[in-house]
Amino acid sequence: MTKTLQTIAAATAISASLAGAAGAQTVKNVVLVHGAFADGSGWREVYDELTARGFAVNIVQNPLTSFADDVAATNRVLARQDGTAILVGHSYGGSVITEAGANPKVAGLVYVAAFAPDVGQSTLDQYAEVAPPPNFVPEEQPDGFAYLNKNKFRAGFAADTTDKDAAFLRDSQVPIAMAALKAKVTTAAWKTKPSWYVVATEDGAIAPELLRSTARRIGATTTEVKGSHVVFLTQPKAVADVIEAAAKGAVTKAR
C-alpha cells in the first residue's frame, strides 16, 4: 500500500471512529408519557418527527386510574427498551416521569408544559404557587374521576387547535382519578437526571409563570414555544427539537 493510500485509510478509520463516538453520545430511545384528560395518540406528530430522525419511540398509555398505575405503565414500557431512553412527560405526565424517571434505563427527562413535584408533593400541590388559569375547570364526578368542563375545554386546554381538533379532544377526553392528582411523589428524578423543559407560552391549563418557575426550580434547560397546553400537538417540530437536544446532551450532562 502506498503512503497516500495509507494516509487515506487512516483518515477513513479516524472518521469512522469519530462518527461512532458521536453516535454513542446520542440516546436513541424515546418514551412519551401523556397527561390527564387525554391519551397517547396526541403524540402522533411528535412520534412522526422523531422516528423520521432515526429515534425508536414508544408511547405509554396511562390508565389514569391511579398515580401508581400510571408509574407502573411507564416502567412497563421502559422495561422493553433496548438501552437507555429519554423519558418525556406532558402536564400530569411530568409527575409520572418525576417518579418513574428513577428507573436506571432513563438517561434524561423532558418536561412539556408539565408538573415536576418535589418529594412529598402532589400534582395539585403545584398549583399552590400559581393558581390554574380561569378556563381550566376539572369537574369531579360522583365516582371520583374528573373531566374538563366542556364549555371551557378549548380555552383551557387546546386554544390553538382547529375547531375540529378541539371538538375531538373535548369529546374523547379520558377521565382521571382525582386521587392520582393528589398522590405524593416519593422520588424526584430531576434531582439526579439531566432535565429539559418546554414552556408553552399560551398555556391555559398551567399558567406560564408556573411553568417557568418549575423549570428554574428543577434546573432544566428551558425552551419557550408559543403554543397552548397541547403544544406537543400544535408545535410538534419544536417539541421534537427539544427531545432531540436532550437525546444528544443527556450522556454529556450525566458525566
Q: How do the helices and strands follow one another from N- to C-terminus?
A: HEHEHEHEEEHHEHEHEHH
Biggest beta-sheet profile: 6 strands, parallel
Level-1 CATH class name: Alpha Beta
Mean pLDDT equals 91
Please give a quick description of this structure.
This protein is of the alpha/beta class and 255 residues long. Helix content is 41%, strand content 17%.
Describe the structure.
- By secondary structure, this protein is an alpha/beta fold.
- It has one domain: Alpha/Beta hydrolase fold, catalytic domain (Rossmann fold).
- It contains 10 helices and 9 strands.
- A 6-stranded parallel sheet has the order 2-1-3-4-8-9, sandwiched between helices.
- Strand 3 (85-90), helix 4 (92-100) and strand 4 form a beta-alpha-beta unit.
- The termini are far apart.
Summarize this structure as a short list of keywords or feature phrases.
single chain; 255 residues; alpha/beta; Rossmann fold; 6-stranded parallel β-sheet; 3-stranded antiparallel β-sheet; 10 helices; globular
Helix and strand topology:
Elements: H1 3-24, E1 29-33, H2 44-52, E2 56-60, H3 67-78, E3 85-90, H4 92-100, E4 106-112, E5 138-140, E6 145-148, H5 153-157, H6 163-171, E7 176-177, H7 178-182, E8 195-200, H8 208-218, E9 221-225, H9 231-234, H10 236-254
Parallel strand pairs: 1-2, 1-3, 3-4, 4-8, 8-9
Antiparallel strand pairs: 5-6, 6-7
